[in-house]
Amino acid sequence: MKILLISPASGKWRQIGKRRLFNGRTFRFSMLPLLMVARMCPEDSDIRLIDEQVEDTPLDETFDVVGITCMTATAPRAFELCHHFRQRHIPVVLGGFFPTLNPDLALQHCDAVVTGPAMEAWPRLLKDLKAGGLQKQYRGNPNGRIPTLLPRQLLNRQNYSTINSVYATMGCRNRCKFCSISAVYDAHHYQRPVEEVIEEISSFKTRFFMFVDDNLTQDRDYIRALLSRLIPLRKKWVTQVSTEIAEDAELLVLLKEAGCVGVFIGLESFNEKNLNQHEKEFNRPARYKQIVDSFHRHGIFVQAGIIFGFEWDDVHVFESTLKMLEEVGIDVIQAAIMTPLPGTPLYEEMKDRILDTDWEHYDYRHVVFQPRRMTAEQLQAGADWVIRKYYSPWCILRRTLRWLTAPCGLRHFIYPFVLNWAYYGRAKVFAITGYNPAVVQDCVSAVSRLQSVSLIQ
Ligand code: B12
């Protein structure tokens, strides 16, 4: 069977991947969704895997089936590809976050959808296809056996920061309202047998790898077992965790010994009212500094996820957040704009405030709804301004001095150093500038005050 697997990218992303400098390589990793699907194909399959960020889809070639992975932001391009191949009478299957959350919408464009993980569903689908009885929808089994030793040779390693990414757990038990993970996994935290994860990591030829887990440390017994087995492998890795673990001194030591060099933590906001409203009350802004210091003491850098556009955010949130990020000592940020993703409860709740239904804009970089306490333009300008300011060469230099003088020095902080410059490059390539809407608002009111005074005189 000749199978084409595509990770789609919109036009802008397809151009960036071809640049020589600041081409997004630092941010490209994983490809796990399609590597897993590829691994589940029959052994005699002829598989072609295309990542549109770095290569072109062979639109004119003939295949027995085309499988496309898509999230909300890549859905429009995925639909374009669906139409193209279906016109050529080649069956197309969609899988991933968007079809899982919106199977009916996806089915308007493709022949079949796989919802949830591909385990068990994809082999079943291929059998049906071969027998001429393709169904519309296939549900994956999240408890199904996850294949190890993926066909990573299908990827050109030059295009990625690493091709060695792996997951030990899937999903998260928290129900933070802005996050689509709980909707996709119904707030479950699935775990792979430690033995199998270790087998997969042992097969990596490189020292550095990535865990793409949503919350790797959520189950303390599981993570302790995994970390103890990781220590002898002497690897270095990064992952995503949540704030509570910083209080577990023993776990922090284990993380360090097992080779963890960096964590992504969703701090989201410095305003408790925002966190409470989104069911993330376990984040306590008053404790952020202590948390970050604990990671730093163990030589672990902290990338903070920050979201702008919460209900209590007004034009002043941008400046105050920048100030807090410095005070707390964050090493890298991922500044996102609140995005109600279709198929989630948040989307239903905010339906009457949606301003933009072009899914390509649902990439956490565009304002797609009417904010409560500012205009959409102010939210966009402010979020852009924070990115530009945080990743200005001067600020990166200041952080570099801090890393150089830290107890473990640049040896541990080489990762955030590289990431900071990569974000600087991304801001340049995407021409992210923005402005501080609070200053503009203050100027406008000062001018109108002056005008009214001169009118009275
Ligand atoms: C690595 C990653 C990326 C990588 C690579 C993605 C890739 N194609 O491999 C990069 C860096 C490129 C990326 C980019 C973005 N990402 Co991203 N990414 C992830 C992350 C952290 C891990 C993905 C992964 O490897 N998962 C492990 C695999 C095995 O699980 P899976 O993806 O669910 O795949 C299984 C099933 O869904 C199914 N399946 C998936 N695809 C297909 C296809 C077929 C044919 C079949 C049969 C089955 C199938 O089978 C797979 C195996 O069981 C996820 C978070 C997460 N938990 O998944 C976010 C995530 C998918 N990303 C997200 C977003 C928003 C983005 C961006 C839009 C913005 C951003 N944050 O930078 C950009 C898109 C840029 C663009 N316009 O092109 C969101 C998507 C939300 C949504 N509902 O749409 C997520 C969920 C993060 C989050 N918590 O919000 N991302």
What features would you describe in this structure?
This protein has 457 residues and is α/β, with parallel strands linked by helices. Helix content is 40%, strand content 15%. It has helices at residues 11-16, 32-39, 75-87, 97-101, 103-107, 121-130, 181-185, 194-202, 220-230, 249-257, 272-277, 288-297, 317-328, 345-350, 376-390, 393-404, 409-429, 437-456, and strands spanning 2-7, 46-51, 65-69, 92-95, 112-115, 137-139, 165-166, 169-170, 190-191, 208-211, 236-241, 260-268, 301-308, 332-337. The longest helix has 21 residues, at 409-429. The N and C termini lie far apart (85 Å). The model has no long low-confidence stretch (mean pLDDT 93). Bound molecules: cobalamin. Cobalamin (B12) is lined by residues 7, 9-10, 13, 27-33, 36-37, 67-69, 71-74, 93, 95-98, 114, 117-119, 122, 167, 179-181, 212, 214, 341, 363-364.
